[in-house]
Automatic annotation (TrEMBL):
One of the record's GO molecular function terms: thyroxine 5'-deiodinase activity
Function recorded in the entry: Responsible for the deiodination of T4 (3,5,3',5'-tetraiodothyronine).
Species assigned in the record: Hucho hucho
InterPro entries hit by this protein: Iodothyronine_deiodinase
Endoplasmic reticulum listed as a keyword: no
Pfam families attached to this UniProt entry: T4_deiodinase (PF00837)
A GO biological process held by the record: thyroid hormone metabolic process
Protein name, UniProt field: Iodothyronine deiodinase
Family: Belongs to the iodothyronine deiodinase family.
Alphabetically ordered keywords of this record: Oxidoreductase, Selenocysteine, Thyroid hormones biosynthesis
Length: 117
């Protein structure tokens, strides 16, 4: 399973790594900064790069991208697919039911995840 997962995630990971590298590429940053100066942007605009030590293409960022890609791959809910039918507990009767037991006809089912604090 590990090799198959790597083959599936590798193209997406490499594309994200390439984008991070492009963001750090000094010539692109200089061009963007020069265009901002030419356009006379206000001082309220956030800087594109604060310093040369402020890099996006680092080992830590690549690890975070890989971890995010894995989480995305293994999630059970995907856009356009059938919703996962997870188990929930009714508050009044304290019995376990499935989320999709509350679906009525073609009406959309809305879940509201509120805060208990």
């Amino acid at each position: 399973m590990g090799k198959v997962l790597c083959l599936i995630l590798l193209p997406r990971f490499l594309l994200a790594a390439l984008m991070l590298w492009l963001l750090d590429f000094l010539c692109i940053r200089r061009k963007v900064l020069l265009k901002m100066r030419e356009q006379g942007s206000s001082r309220d605009d956030p800087p594109v790069c604060v310093s040369d030590s402020n890099k996006m293409f680092t080992l830590e960022s690549l690890r975070a991208v890989w971890y995010g890609q894995k989480l995305d791959f293994f999630k059970s809910a995907h856009l356009g697919f059938i919703a996962p039918n997870t188990e929930v507990v009714q508050l009044k009767e304290r019995r376990r039911v499935r989320v999709l037991d509350y679906v009525k006809g073609r009406r959309p089912l809305i879940l509201n995840f509120g805060s208990c604090s």
